[in-house]
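Bug #77: duplicate submission created two jobs. Keeping one. Sequence:
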Amino acid sequence: MNEKHTANVDSDRVETAISKYQILVIDDSHATRRGVKKFLEPLNMEIAEASDGQQGLELAKNGEFDLIITDIDMPKMNGIELCRRLKNTQDTRTIPVIMLSSFDSEADINRGFQAGASAYISKKEARHCLQDSVKEILSKAKFQRERIIMVVDDSYMIRHLVGDGLAQAGFQVINAENGEKALHILENVRPDLILSDINMPQMDGFAFCEKVHANPELASIPFVVMSTNSDRSYMKRMLSYGAEAYLVKPFNIDQVVILIEKLLSDQFLLLLKEKERLDLERNLMLASITSLVTALESRDHYTRGHSEVVARIVSGMASVKGLSKEEIEMITIGVKLHDIGKIGISDNILLKPGRLTDEEFAHIKQHPTIGANILKSIHSLRDILSIVQYHHERMDGKGYPHGLKGDEIPLWARMTAIADTYHALISDRPYREAMSQEKAFKIIDEVKGSQLCPECVDVFFKWASTQKSVPEWPK
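Kept job's structure:
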């Protein structure tokens, strides 16, 4: 059976701004506590106070603090003992502690770090560095709470000791008894780092490391080896399989934590740079494609600005529906590109002033597939293909290009169909004048359930009710 050690973190709490942080300041001097609050005032944090170590410990056990700042020389319980107890208590061990003291000798500082403090600051320097230290430690703590470490070892004692030490440092930990069981767990969980023994039954560390790095989806996970074997050939072999580091047992858990923090920090910076590069490439590509859509719509003054307006409506619907910021951003991009396939439709048909023949309409019906084919090779846009390809499908199955029915049609495409229909109705066309908003609303309500998704129509009307007036959209 696999044990699971996880850091004592409320994973449901979302920290969206630094103003959400809860800080506990412990000092027997009221003036010092007032000074610390003043230094941290620009960060807009919620700060609680305690006048001695014992009171601070009780508040920490009963609260949900993100950081504790404590003096050392205090009545009832000094800061060193307080820090030790915090780190030895399940509910408080992951809370970072800053020692803020007038005792700033080398021996005092060492005692503070040995007790488990994350930082040691002299009160003389607090005015200049406390604020930056608090921001740095909170950022690091948040980063570690979100990281999952997999510990693989056939020894329960090792799994327990290492897992407990990592959890105390703020990491989430999952365990496996050998490489085979670890691979099974990796089918459903993606840890941020793997810490593995070599000599294990069923599948040893060599085979496990080789299989991890042979899988493209797992190969980027840092792999750290821990073993009692200090033979250089073992080390070279594991490193040749892709291991990032080799730890010889017995080792100090603090060494492991420092190594993991370093590896994850380096990997995070690399991933951040890669994300920035991909975002830049995607933005440049989107700018080019959007320019094509703009050029396409500019050929016909009847549809000029259509995609922008439809995107504005759908993003509003998505917001009403409570979709995430990332989803709304992706939907907006997709809707702006929903008619990109019309690039492949000849001007004779696309710009025809009268009604289309059946043959011409059949040609127009190809534009969703053409659009999807244009975008499908762009990996970062794969999530929006459903909008491009299915925005002309109908709930009754009479749409195109695939004749999908009901919930077979992806949600984002169903939302786009409503906004697309609405803007077409309130816009001038070669064969009719624009309808009033009231008439357009009536038509949308009439085709609710047959052509358009009932749930999405309700969301559309809810969004429309929040608009103070009909914008002067281009027609």
